[in-house]
Write the structure tokens for this entry.
Amino acid sequence: MMPLRKKTPSNLSIPVNTKDPVRLAFLGGPKSGKTALISKLTTGTYCDTYYPLRLTVPVLFNFAPSKTDLEVLLDETLSAKALKVVLKQTNVLVSPVVYNALQQNYLKTAPTVASDTESVTITGNNGYYASYRRKSAGEKESGVTPIMTELIDTPAFNPSQIVPFLEASLYVRLDRDVLHKLADVPRQPVSTNPLIVASGASEMNGLVDGYFFVYNAIPTTEPPSYEEVSPSTSNEDSLYSTSVDSAESYNKDGTLKSLTLHTNANDKTFSLLPVMKDALEEAWKEYYTYKTRWELGEERDVFSFKSALKNMWNERGNQPSMSEKNIQLMDTSIDPASPLCPPPIWIVCTNLKSPLASPKLMEDGKNLAKLWRCGFVALDSNEDVEEVLALMIRELVERRKLQKTRKRRG
């Protein structure tokens, strides 16, 4: 194989995706460890004290993997080494997209490095980052360029305050011709948090590339006091069983798989994961419906007198009513190669090394990831946490390749 083009070492410190950063949102309940994880990723440290987040906070930084194993995970020409890295870790469950890509590229030959005394050869550029080989003093070194990444920290997930989708941001200043008499009253504070906003000034828009569902390995419920425990009661009374269905996994007989979880009624982190997934799926259905109708020119003033009169006399019996048309949402796809497939989800379990961590909670998270066919990482903010970003970005790379291949084939 002919050596690829060279690149000067000085350019290796510049991100390839400066105009299109990787945008990743973190969702989770109170005290799930979202903010501590983001702080550790961006600054290398974090604060133990819990401060509830009130607003969505984006953090932009250059992600430069500091460990060789992470560069191996990101380098598309080192799939054999990457496969060994992920298989030896018990706290990581890679998604099917990443696992299949590593297996398919296992037997591919890596590009050769130029034979200069000191040279750098670019072995790949996927739009997110460039991978390279450096040869110096007879030794070969591989690496990747920094990746511009935006991490979006969100307030604690509260089902009663979540709006899956909004057409326009609540924070944008609308004119009087839109608000009418509402513009005469003072603006009231908004207590709802949308998961996706189609237009307007909002970080949670349709350009988010991936989502982290974060929960705490430490149970959020305290044991009952001695006065509360009687011979006729037990801790099992506070447990309840919930069945989580899947739209991604099937049994051998063709039926959808389900998972029964036994959680505490007062749990505020792990029990929120299925609720978050349902809300996010609904949000992307509404977003794709809105986007498709907008592109087709159907987001015009359908309530005008002329349009209503025309529909009343000419198309009353032939077309569905506008209310039925608005209610019907487009179905999303579970195929990562489809453009209608929502961004990937990775489940993150925090405080893994804490003495109070529950092994059952970690195992439940892994089982939930298998059911949803997504990735899972259990970590502790006291140690290195960069792996969670490397795995997510690698999945984004593989999904983009799958979608390009399908588009090229028509």
User: Anything to note?
Assistant: The chain has a mean pLDDT of 78.
